[in-house]
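=== Structure Prediction Worksheet ===
Name of assembly: unnamed complex
Input type: mixed (protein and possibly other molecules)
Chain count: two
Listed entries:
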Amino acid sequence: MKIKILLAPTIIVLIIILSVWVIYPAYTNGIDGVKEKKQALKEQTRLSGNLDNQIKNVGTLSADLRSNATKNAVIFDYIPRDKNEEKIIGSLDLLAKDSGLSVLNISVFEIKNKEQNSVDAVVPTAPLGAALPGIMPEVATQPLAVTEVVPKKIKVDLFVLGDYGGIKVLLEKIQKMTRFNKFVTLEINTLLKDDQTVSESLSAKITLEFNYLKELANLAPGDIDNQIFSAGAFNKKIIDEIEKSKSIEVKDVLPGQKGTANPFLMIK
Amino acid sequence: MVNINLVTDGKAREGIGSGISSLAILLLLVLGLYAFLVFYGKNLDSKTNSLKADYDSKRSGLVVGDSNKVLDFENRLVLSRKLMTEERNVKQGIEKVEEAIISGTYLSAYSYDDATRAITLECYTDNYETVAKQILGFKGSDYFSGVLAGETKFDTKINRIAFPVVLTIK
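=== Predicted Assembly ===
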C-alpha cells in the first residue's frame, strides 16, 4: 500500500522531468530539434525549388545570347573582353587626323590598382553565408551574394596640335566612340610663334580612361545566387542608350607586312 | 479514547489503483512521444540530406554549363549602366565657356579635371573692369556651380592682365 502511495508522485515527477528535460529539447533546442529540422527541410525545399527555376532560366538566357548575338555585341564593343590597345591607338590617330590635327603622342598605360590586383573581375559586397535563425548551419551555406564587377582600366595620353575647331571635333568624335571612354583630364594651351605672338594653333593634351573586362571563365562561389538567374531575362535598355549616343566604331587594325632582314632598319 | 482506523476500504484501494494506472499510461504516452520525436527527427534529417545532395548535384551541374556566359553578359550590362552615367560631355564644358566669354577677354589655357569636375582657365584682358565683368559673366552661367577668381598678374611682355578662374561644373 505504501509503495502504491509513493508510486503516484514518483510517476508525476518522472513525467515532469521527461517533459521538461527530454521531450521539449527533442522538439526544439535552437539547433537540431524537430522544429529546427522542419524549418531546415522547408528552407532546403525552397532552395531546391529556386534552383530548378534557375536551371530553367539559364536555358532561356543562353538562348537569348545566341539569338540576339548582333544586338548584344554592342555591349562587348562598349566593354571589350581584351585590352585591344592597338585598336585604341589606331582609332585615336585616325580620329585626330580626320579632325585636321597633328598627333604628337599617344601613350597607353594599364592602371594597376589595389582592387585589380586582389580580384580580377568581381568584388563581393555582401557577407557570404549569413546564418539564418533556426536553420542548420549546413543549409545556411547557400547564401545570397551581391557582387560588384570591377573592370581593368587603361589610361591613354593623347597629345595633338591643331586649330580650336579641330580639337572640338576630335573631342566629340572620341565621345562618340562605341568603346567606353572617360575624359580624365583635358588641357588646351595656346602656342607662341617665333615673334612671341599667339599662334592660331593650339596644343591639346587629352588623358582618357578606357577599360576591359576579361570573360568570366568559371562561376565563383555565390555567383549562382546572382539575381539574373532568378529573374530569367536581361534588362537591355542600356544597349539602346549606347546605340543612341555612340556611333564611331573602334576599327580593327590592318596587319602590316611582316618580315625583315634587318629589324634595325626601317623598311617603307 | 478515540480510535483511528487506518484500514482503507475496497473503494479507496480501487481509486488509488486506477489513478496509478492513468499515470502509468500518461508516462507511456510521454515515452511514446519522445520515441516519435526521435523517429520523426531522423526522418526529417534523411529528407533534408537527400534534398541537399540533389541540390548540390544540380548546382554543380549549373556551374559548369552556360551560366558563366549568362553571368558575364549580365555583369557587362550592369557595368555599362554605371559607366554611362560616369561619362561626361567635355565638349559641352568648352561650349559653355565660349558662351560666357565676354569681348575683350581671351584664353591662353583651358584645363578640365574629371576628379574635381573643375575647369581651370587662364584668361587675358586689357583692364580690370573687363576682369570683373568676365567673372560676373561666368557667375551668370547655369552650367557652373562655383566660380573662383585667382591672383591676377600684369604680363609686361604682352601688356595684358592675366587672371586665372576656376569653374566648378554643377
